[in-house]
Design brief:
The structure holds 3 protein chains of 3 kinds. By secondary structure, chain A is of the alpha/beta class. Chain A is built from 9 helices and 10 strands. In chain A, strands 6-7-8-3-9-10 form a 6-stranded mixed sheet, sandwiched between helices. The longest helix of chain A is centred in the middle third of the chain and has 15 residues, at 99-113. The termini of chain A are far apart. The model of chain A has no long low-confidence stretch (mean pLDDT 89). Chain B contains 14 helices and 4 strands. Chain B has helices at residues 2-23, 26-51, 60-77, 81-103, 108-128, 130-133, 160-183, 185-195, 197-201, 207-233, 244-256, 263-281, 287-299, 303-311; strands spanning 139-140, 147-150, 153-156, 235-236. In chain B, the strands form 2 sheets. A two-stranded antiparallel sheet of chain B has the order 1-4. In chain B, strands 2-3 form a two-stranded antiparallel sheet. The model of chain B has no long low-confidence stretch (mean pLDDT 92). Chain C has a domain at 20-223. Chain C has helices at 3-35, 42-59, 64-91, 98-119, 144-166, 168-178, 180-185, 190-212, 224-237, 242-262, 265-282, and strands spanning 134-136, 141-143. The longest helix of chain C has 33 residues, at 3-35. By secondary structure, chain C is mostly helical. The termini of chain C are far apart. The model of chain C has no long low-confidence stretch (mean pLDDT 87). In chain C, helix 1 (3-35) crosses helix 9 (224-237), helix 2 (42-59) packs across helix 9 and helix 9 (224-237) crosses helix 10 (242-262). Helices cover 74% and strands 2% of the residues of chain C. Chain C has a two-stranded antiparallel ribbon.
């Protein structure tokens, strides 16, 4: 089979803060449709790496190519509109607005950009509620987002990402602080999302990673240490040493 | 449903103001004319401060840009009212575009100080060109020039009833515009930017462009109030560009309720009467401005309309 | 008068402005540095210091130095006490939320200013200088008092610097500035430190005012211009950087003195304000400050 152009690729991507090289010379490729997990010890540069991808921070050097287009110098909001959605590691929602308004803001952005659609009240309602139903939040639509339970706030983060109808959804430690039951339904949700979008997942919980990821990238000290299927990663000596505590 | 309710409410307010033209005694009708124009100033300020969360301490410059844009063209160039109003609007909008473009590179405290300083520069400019502006003393527009031409008729803006109706017309237009704006996708985006700017950026919104648009529309509305003030009341002076006139709209909006469509009108009306009453008793009537600011921010930060919305009428826009 | 002596006179006048401005800006900078509060009422503390100086000086008869010294001691103390109370009653209850505190200090500005108008009146009144001596230079005579103002300001700044860097109070303040929560955890009464800093900042403005009243008269509206100038100084010097504040005060004071000798003062103020606004837009850390830690 001919090599398919990946949806996302980076070349020589680096970023340093002062003297600290948080991400160095990362070459990374993610084909369309995959669920990819990035794992690694704290401070390995995972969040910095995905922040470089979605444009929250700009690289010191190197490039990010999304969908065949160099987006390295594009501001974050333009990358989002190109199809890269990011959900925050620390819950970042509009606490004072209703749950529905939270997703409506995301849906509205998508509708404004879609030349065929218009952000009519009905279109917003449909798209917003669809995202809420997928995440199981439909019953809370009229609640103030800040009053939701923590687990539901995490889901709202994901719902906002979904309402953008992204091609690439980046989830930054989505299961942090969730209960076991919540984690199970979360895994099912991400699997569902994975049918329509490419997913890049930073995750510490190895059960979640093994259950979801088709391939795993391991980062350590700003570099990619290894990459492979869950089985390969499990068997990798270097990974065991650096991360799994093997 | 709620849409209809709020439309009725706003229509009722406008109708009530219309009826008051025939009911109010002369003195109070004069005050109401002035309050309506200043309330438009407050509505413009509210768009930036209340809805978008941009605490500017320099909005006097936009009001004054409208005031001088209209006043100077009438006084020195003999322009008639309509083109003069246009000049005022243009001056305010351009100024807002430039100031917004620069000041929005900063946030929070720096934004306040930068807007304060730009406004101070504007104020000093009006003093520096005192040959044309006559500084603090100001210019009085000749009565003969304050005639508003409409198709088929022309009105003298020195007539109290005409003045009242002209002020009401402006208020109606701006209130309607605000109502449409804040219920539009763009208005929702502004509120969301106020609530969580970083999240909005990561939802694909160009935060800077949205804020800039907010400042420009806000400046345009304030300039409209300033231009109307010049031609309706026939006086143009540096005092309107001073810091005090940047702080007053903040106070009016805080009192009436930030991020509410009717709050600025309520706040301006109340404060105007409070100051009017206080000035009968003391020359230090600005004391009430100070007391009101502190009491509001300590105990009543949502203002009148904001509290009504929170307690009783959640549909209030 | 030839150009040289003219410039010398302008420089001396500029140094007097700088001396007073540095003290006042130091107060503003201290409050911002430790509390992250922009005190818009700072100019009114200055005005209050001047008005009280007149009042204290008018209480005593005899040699003008007695009245002046009384004012120099008591006026800053009273102003500090008022600031302390205002901080406890208002600012602390707002939890130092930046925008709310700005609105509150604007309120404070009006209250102090209008109370001064009520009780002191709209007149401008002078305080007699403690001594009346002219130093004769070859080209013109210069007031010795003005030179003493420069010296006094330097002394005050050295004392403040010493207190901040060499004493326990200074250590406590710096700890609070660095990390409020940790300071609290170490048993530092953060609330009282804040109130103390706010009072100290106001007192510095009052000292500046007492020094200036023999040169400029006390008036209830005298606070606004120095407030804006202090903002300018603090911004140019880098928000919260004390050394930068002093350097910037000298720079602004001198250029203000020299420029307004040769140009219209309004134009000078206009250009200076515009320049500073642009500095804040394009170089928010100030000309001398470094990027925030």
């Amino acid at each position: 089979m001919a090599a398919v152009t990946p949806l996302l690729s980076t070349r020589g991507l680096s970023r340093s803060f002062g003297g600290l090289k948080a991400v160095r010379e990362v070459d990374f490729a993610l084909p369309e449709g995959q669920i990819r997990a990035i794992i690694g010890p704290n401070g390995a540069g995972k969040t910095t790496f995905v922040s470089l991808v979605c444009g929250r921070i700009l690289p010191s050097s190197g490039s990010v190519v999304f969908d065949g287009r160099d987006v390295s110098r594009l501001p974050a909001h333009k990358r989002v509109r190109a199809g890269i959605a990011y959900t925050f590691q620390i819950t970042s929602i509009f606490s004072n607005l209703t749950v529905f308004d939270n997703v409506a803001l995301a849906a509205q952005r998508h509708l404004l950009d879609d030349r065929q659609a218009r952000p009519t009240a009905r279109a917003l309602e449909e798209d917003g509620m669809a995202a809420l139903e997928k995440t199981g939040l439909a019953d809370f639509a009229e609640r103030r987002a800040g009053n939701l339970a923590y687990g539901h706030q995490r889901l709202l983060e994901v719902a906002m990402g979904l309402a953008l109808k992204p091609r690439l959804l980046i989830l930054d430690e989505p299961t942090q602080g969730l209960s076991d039951g919540e984690i199970d339904s979360f895994v099912a949700l991400v699997r569902e999302i994975g049918r329509e979008a490419t997913v890049l997942l930073i995750e510490h919980n190895m059960d979640v990673v093994m259950a979801l990821a088709e391939r795993i990238t391991v980062m350590d000290q700003g570099c990619i240490l290894a990459e492979g299927t869950p089985e390969e990663i499990r068997a990798d000596k270097a990974v065991q040493q650096a991360y799994l505590g093997g | 449903m709620t849409n209809a309710k709020s439309l009725w409410l706003h229509a009722a307010v406008i109708l009530l103001l219309f009826a008051l033209n025939f009911l109010l005694p002369e003195y109070h009708r004069g005050i109401f004319s002035r309050v309506m124009v200043l309330a438009v100033f407050a509505m413009g300020y509210n768009l930036a401060f209340g809805y978008t969360g941009l605490l500017s301490l320099g909005h006097a410059m936009f009001f004054a840009a409208g005031l001088y844009g209209a006043g100077l063209t009438v006084y020195h160039l003999g322009w008639s009212i309509w083109p003069a109003l246009g000049a005022g609007l243009l001056a305010g909008t351009l100024l807002a575009l430039v100031v917004g473009f620069l000041a929005l590179r900063t946030t929070g405290v720096a934004f306040m100080i930068v807007t304060l300083m730009f406004a101070q520069v504007f104020y000093l400019t009006t003093l520096y060109f005192t040959t044309y502006t006559r500084g603090e003393e100001g210019l009085v527009l000749p009565q003969a020039m304050r005639t508003l031409a409409l198709p088929g008729a022309s009105f003298s803006l020195t007539d109290p009833a005409t003045r009242y109706m002209a002020a009401l017309a402006l208020l109606t237009i701006v209130l309607g515009l605000t109502l449409i704006l804040v219920r539009s996708p763009y208005g929702r985006a502004l509120i969301a930017i106020r609530e969580n700017e970083e999240r909005m950026r990561m939802l694909g919104y160009d935060v800077f462009a949205n804020k800039l648009a907010s400042v420009v529309i806000s400046g345009l509305i304030c300039a409209a109030a300033g231009a109307a003030y010049a031609v309706l009341f026939g006086y143009v002076g540096s005092g309107f560009a001073s810091i005090q006139y940047s702080i007053l709209p903040l106070l009016w909006v805080l009192l009436g309720g930030g991020a509410t469509t009717l709050g600025p009108l309520i706040g301006t009306l109340f404060m105007f009467y409070i100051i009017d009453t206080a000035s009968d008793y003391t020359t230090a009537y600005l004391l009430v401005v100070g007391l009101a600011l502190i009491l509001l921010i300590l105990y009543f930060p949502k203002g009148i309309a904001g509290t009504v919305r929170e307690r009783w009428l959640p549909w209030l826009p | 008068m030839a150009f040289g002596p003219y410039l010398l006179l302008a420089t001396l006048e500029g140094l007097v402005t700088a001396a007073v401005l540095a003290l006042m800006a130091l107060g503003l900078s201290l409050v911002f540095g430790v509390m992250r509060v922009v005190n818009v009422a700072h100019g009114e503390f200055y005005m209050l210091g001047a008005v009280l100086a007149w009042w204290f000086a008018s209480l005593v008869t005899g040699h003008p130095a007695i009245g002046f010294l009384l004012a120099l001691v008591l006026s800053p103390l009273v102003v500090a006490a008022i600031a302390f109370v205002a901080e406890r009653l208002v600012l602390s209850r707002l939890n130092y939320e930046p925008e709310a505190t700005i609105v509150a200090t604007i309120g404070l500005l009006y209250i102090i200013q209008q109370l001064a108008l009520t009780f002191y009146g709209p007149e401008a009144r002078p305080v007699q200088a403690p001594f009346d001596m002219r130093i004769s230079l070859p080209w013109f005579g210069y007031s010795a008092y003005k030179l003493a103002v420069i010296a006094a300001s330097i002394l005050m700044m050295l004392a403040t610097w010493f207190a901040l860097t060499r004493t326990k109070i200074g250590l406590v303040m710096r700890a609070t500035q660095y990390d409020r929560e940790t300071a609290q955890a170490f048993g530092i009464p953060v609330g009282r430190v804040y109130a103390g800093v706010f009072a100290l900042g106001a007192a510095l403005a009052a000292v500046a005012a007492v020094l200036i009243v023999p040169i400029q008269q006390a008036h209830y509206l005298m606070g606004l211009d120095p407030l804006l100038l202090s903002f300018i100084v603090v911004i140019i010097g880098g928000l919260g950087s004390l050394r930068g504040t002093v350097v910037a005060a000298i720079l602004i004071g001198l250029s203000d003195g020299i420029i307004s000798m040769f140009f219209s003062p309004t134009l000078a103020k206009m250009l200076a304000t515009l320049l500073v606004a642009l500095v804040l837009v394009f170089r928010p850390q100030g000309l001398f400050g470094t990027v925030a830690r």
